[in-house]
Write a structure and sequence with these properties.
- The N and C termini lie far apart (about 75 Å).
- Helix 9 packs antiparallel against helix 10 and helix 11 (about 235-255) crosses helix 12.
- Helix content is about 80%, strand content about 0%.
- Mean pLDDT is about 75; it is low at about 130-145.
- It has helices at about 1-30, 30-65, 70-80, 85-100, 105-110, 115-125, 130, 135-145, 150-185, 195-225, 235-255, 260-270, 275-290, 295-300, 305-310, 315-375.
- The longest helix is centred in the C-terminal third of the chain and has 60 residues, at about 315-375.
- It is mainly α.
- The chain is built from 16 helices and no strands.
Amino acid sequence: MGRLIRFILIILIFLVVATVLLVFVAFLRSLFALLFVLLLVLTIVDYFMRRYRNSVSSLNSAIRAVCDQEGAIVRVAHGFSRSGPVSSECYEFTRRLKMGEAPMSAAIMAGVPLQLRTAVAMENGRSMDDAQFDREAAEQQLESVDSTMMPIYGQFIYLLGTALVTSFVLTFLSMFILPTMRQLLDEFGLKFEFEAFVDLAGSFSIGVLLVVIVAASMPLLAALLGMRAPGILPMMPKRARRKAEFLQGLAAGYDARWPVERTLGLACDVYRKTFDGMTMAVMLRHVQSGVDPIHVVKNAGWLSRRESAWIDQSDAIRTAQVLRAIADQNLRDGAANLRSVMGVFYPIMVFLIGITVAVIVVGFFGALVGLISGLS
């Protein structure tokens, strides 16, 4: 049912987007209108994706906090079923729990977006995070929270805003200024040379806007279609979060003294509706055939060769600690890689936008000078 609802929602979103695009293009008949609608759609999609991700994180945190209390999971599920992006899944989850179904089975059948460490905590009856809570470590972790995303979003907003204003100015010039100047120059027998500059500036402006749109839309399209970024690309925050969630869940399994086969079997249920579900099934088969679990995790791309060497031949407690440290480092690396990419991308885009504005200024004032010289 959850998969059918998601499919219907995707179809509805595409229909709405197609309708809006047709309306804008039919009325305004310009590439600027198309780009504006694309920006609007990407902004809306990004908002709902972030809202969904925050709801999922809050739901999992709440379940882990109360999983050792009798009947508390039902109250948490009922609270999240009232409203929010996961309300339908939590409503079905609540209904199944009230009918006496086991929490883990009810969550999987209802399609609740559980994290692996949450599933381990539910099966284990207590949250291993809470059992090993350290106030000093928590305060240090809070102080090291990376707030880089907001400045980077500010850079994107600046680039998009500047490119949109430039496109709007070009559209205004082509609709109102160019016909008047062309008419004046024709009356005085002068050659009109400004239009070539406007076309050149328009190409720069549209190119800049398209590059920014593609850069902003790739993570959204990858999330919607369930695709992974190519391995040669640096790890971005989304990929870092995905790896961190799995490694933290694997660490929770080690803390609970579970065999790796049990943790991976649970991971197959948790990730069965995602792109990683097939990967988990392959990993489980390799581990069941006798391959070392750390080597299996490394070959699946969750650990690097150096990271797996840190864990090799370690006991369960040491392995869990190292896995959590690697997960935290992945999150920091993802944020740092995003800063590095924007450190190169942002100045290039600013330079291209500056060239666009310079071409407009040179062309416009060149046409004015030509007009004044011809009249004098």
